[in-house]
Specification:
three-stranded mixed β-sheet; six-stranded mixed β-sheet; 12 helices; globular
């Protein structure tokens, strides 16, 4: 475990990490310190070749209630340049998390408001409690979800993003699943059990292949064919087929045996 004031970064011996938002007494509200620590934590995760994927979770009752009240009060007294610097730090967190080389899974309970919805949208996958509550609440307090908006639009689409950003309506986990923000929802009491099921499933997969696939999908984007994209995809499959892990996976499948990365899982 790495020491932080507002976070906990835990390494599981099975080969993944969990980054916990750890201000439960403040409903895991985001402030400058947490954002800075989260940027550092994501860089640490990205630099660790032993990690296969990352879980993003919140301690306590809520995933994150959005921006910390005291931080917002302080921001209101700052000039334009200081506010721009704050926005740059938040953007750095979002873009760094979105660009992480390994897969990311957000696990959501309780409230996920404002910037917290941005964090979820930056993750590759998300699951949550049926009674979780989501809101792009910025317009209620005279602000706008500027920095997080590209990621929210990618996660739920332009039309839904316009509705919820302009109305600041709250919606529950079931609606979040319908929008595509969450892949699955479960009763709160079952959430931890379901997290373990997702972990077990991810651990079945080749560590190299899931990283290469994440990079592939980033390059593919919206899937518009082009000569450059065709060439990229052809090279991607050729490279992984001749790689050590690709050869191991193919041989294990043909020989009807367990691949080495599953054997190493405790």
């Amino acid at each position: 475990m790495t020491d932080f004031n507002t976070l906990q970064l835990e390494h599981d011996p099975r080969g993944f990490a969990t980054l916990w938002l750890n201000r439960p007494q403040k409903n895991n509200a985001l402030d400058a310190e947490m954002i800075g620590e989260a940027i550092r934590a994501v860089h640490l995760v990205n630099a660790d070749p032993q990690l296969r994927f990352l879980l993003l979770r919140g301690r306590g009752k809520h995933f994150s209630a959005g921006a910390d009240l005291a931080w917002m009060q302080a921001s209101a007294r700052l000039d334009y340049q200081a506010n721009l610097n704050d926005a740059h730090q938040l953007a750095e967190l979002m873009y760094t998390l979105q660009a992480l080389s390994i897969p990311t899974l957000a696990v959501v309970q309780g409230a996920a408001f404002g910037g917290a919805l941005g964090l979820i949208s930056c993750c590759d996958m998300a699951i949550g409690a049926t009674d979780a509550l989501f809101s792009l609440s910025e317009v209620r307090i005279g602000l706008t979800p500027a920095v997080i908006s590209p990621f929210v639009v990618q996660a739920i689409g332009q039309r839904a993003a316009r509705r919820y950003a302009l109305t600041a309506e709250r919606f529950d986990g079931q609606r979040a699943r319908e929008l595509g923000l969450l892949a699955e929802v479960f009763p709160s009491a079952e959430l931890d059990v379901q997290v373990e099921a997702w972990v077990a499933n991810l651990l079945l997969n080749s560590p190299q292949a899931i990283q290469v696939t994440k990079e592939l999908l980033r390059e593919v984007g919206n899937g518009t064919p082009s000569p450059a994209l065709r060439s990229y995809t052809e090279q991607a499959i050729a490279r992984i087929r001749v790689s050590q892990e690709g050869q191991e996976g193919l041989n294990a499948f043909l020989e009807k045996r367990t691949p080495s990365w599953q054997e190493k899982t405790p």
